[in-house]
Amino acid sequence: MILHICCAPCGGGCVERVKEENLVPVLFYSNSNLNSAEEFERRLESVKKLASDAKIELHVDPYDHEAWLQAVAGLEDEPEHGARCRKCFRFSLERCANFAAGKDFCTTLTVSPHKDSKVIFDIGSEWENFVPCDFKKHDGYRRSCEIARQSGFYRQKYCGCEFSLTHSGGKK
After folding, report:
1. Measured in whole angstroms, how far is the alpha carbon of residue 108 from the centre of its chain?
2. 75 in any annotated domain
3. Residue 145: inside a domain
4. Is 105 in contact with 71 (CB distance < 8 Å)?
5. What span, in angstroms and rounded, lies between the C-alpha atoms of 163 and 26?
């Protein structure tokens, strides 16, 4: 199972859940929405630790913020959870689908209480091999937070793009 991962705090419980289903997760870190290469690398360090601790494979999608900005162009002033976020989810899921090359894939984005799983599932339905895993279920978010604390993962306070940073009051 290819698991699109946005950050280690979201990913810990998801990796655990996929393994509980007797599947072997392969992480695909794709985060071109992040407002800087430094933030991309900072989150990647914790994802690498998660992959190492879980003894699973990790693939890194090259950081391409310019391509992401083009994908969301015209939606910069949209509120959080609006049309820009839908385009952002689609951008990352499409990159994961291309990497998966027909293998089943899902995303850690559904573990966050700040993301609407139904929206993500709707976007994911564009690909036959997308598996709609709602990682929020069965206390998934709490478990992911617990793993993040135990593992010392970097825990950011905003989704990642410069627009969500503005909406978070500038708190990283």
Report:
1. 5
2. yes
3. yes
4. no
5. 30
**Percent of the chain at pLDDT exceeding 90:** 88
Nearest to 88 by CA among 105, 101, 100, 70: 70
By residue count, the chain amounts to 172
Distance CA 168, CA 162 (A): 10
Q: Is there a contact between 43 and 154 (Cβ–Cβ < 8 Å)?
A: yes
pLDDT value at 168 more than 90: no
The total number of structural domains that make up the chain: 1
How far, rounded to the nearest angstrom, does the alpha carbon of residue 156 sit from its chain's CA centroid? 13
62 lies in which domain range? 2-167
Question: Coil, helix or strand for 105?
Answer: strand
> Residue 172: inside a domain, yes or no?
no
Residue 18 lies in a domain: yes
Pairing mode of beta strands 105-107, 26-29: unpaired
Residue 117: its pLDDT value, please? Answer: 96
CA 8/CA 155 separation, integer angstroms: 8
What's the pTM?
A: 0.94
